[in-house]
Structure prediction request, 442 residues.
Amino acid sequence: MDNLTPKEIVTYLDKYVIGQNEAKKTIAVALRNRYRRMQLTPEMQQDVTPKNILMIGSTGVGKTEIARRLAKMMNLPFIKVEASKYTEVGFVGRDVESMIRDLAATSMTLVRESENEKNKEKIENYIENKIIEKLLPPLPAGASEQKKAEYDASFARMQEKYTKGELDHLKIKVEVPNNPTMPEEGLPPQMIQVQESIVKVLGGMGKKGPEKEVTVKDAKKILASEASEKLLDEEELKSLALEKVEKGGIVFLDEIDKIAVASNSQSRQDPSKEGVQRDLLPIVEGSAVNTKLGMVNTDHILFIAAGAFHVSKPSDLMPELQGRFPLRVELNSLDEETLYRILTEPKNALIKQYEALMKVEDVELVFDEEALRAIAHYSLLANEKTEDIGARRLHTVMEKILEEISFSADEHKGESIHVDKALVEEKISKVVEDEDATRYIL
Prediction:
């Protein structure tokens, strides 16, 4: 799906994200340009750099949802990270280069899954043969032709039983993979490298671990990774993953406003904020980062940054960093009509989710049109009276309305429950009218 046209990308996003057409179009064009660049001559490719995007908008208007849906639709290495989780090199916490290491790991996972799918038949045959060989007594060396024929017949019978799942309950001994302890999060990069070296020396080098008795059903899962390692060339996988991350990697950098230093800020409470920006700059500009795949060049990785910018402004970011996000798109605040559409239109809209959850208890939930309009109205009112949390307000309002129905669902098996405007007003109107109650309850 990495060569969809901009219109196809927007059509896909429309199924899940209501409105915000400008943001969708900007991102769709940026993604299409990745594909266009790959069709150019190698010399021209080097000069065509990604046009990074800065999304500006309040919380709950769809910034993260657009990113989440992009991740699902694209067969490209994609990670979503929060800028506020990083610290300047030298401070305790994650350094910004770790986002590229995470992206490289995501790329490796994608490539491995893709290659496993291509070699699915070979992997399944390897697992089947390995399990049957463990269940049958080994054929002695120099066995007669008759013994070989008997063994082959037994093997064929076992294969038939294996295919039908009749061997799943039997137990066999398999070597479980050695999983050495991974380095802790939040350590400086130098310490992480030291820990990784110790892990390799003390036990990470040997691929195999102790033997363990498990059922055939569980052995299939354990042997799947062994089969993948035996049948696939690890170096080739790394090479493919490296190419994929460098040519198609996408980093969604959320909460970038949290590392901006407001110009009116008198106190420099967190000197690390500017440090994070300084550390982020070379990565966004293009640099080489050491990862488990080797050195990853970030020149052609696409960065999509997003932030609410309530306290700070985009101009509070370092000028050099601002320049690295040439495309800016402002997301609109949600009005009552948009909230109503978010409630009802997306593929797995909130209303459909609650109807499906209640169906598990054999209860049919039916929402009147007026009730849905009232939910959107009161959600907007609550957003206006207190902090605007966008579409997330719909979740709190819905929970408040359906709390009692959900709690006593077992008493209404086989029944149909109507949610009308009167019920919505009974549960919500007084809470919304009282600003203090809205602040604490909704």
User: Anything to note?
Assistant: The CA atoms of residues 136 and 154 lie 8 Å apart. The first helix runs from residue 6 to 14. The first strand starts at residue 53 and ends at 56. The chain has 18 helices and eleven strands.
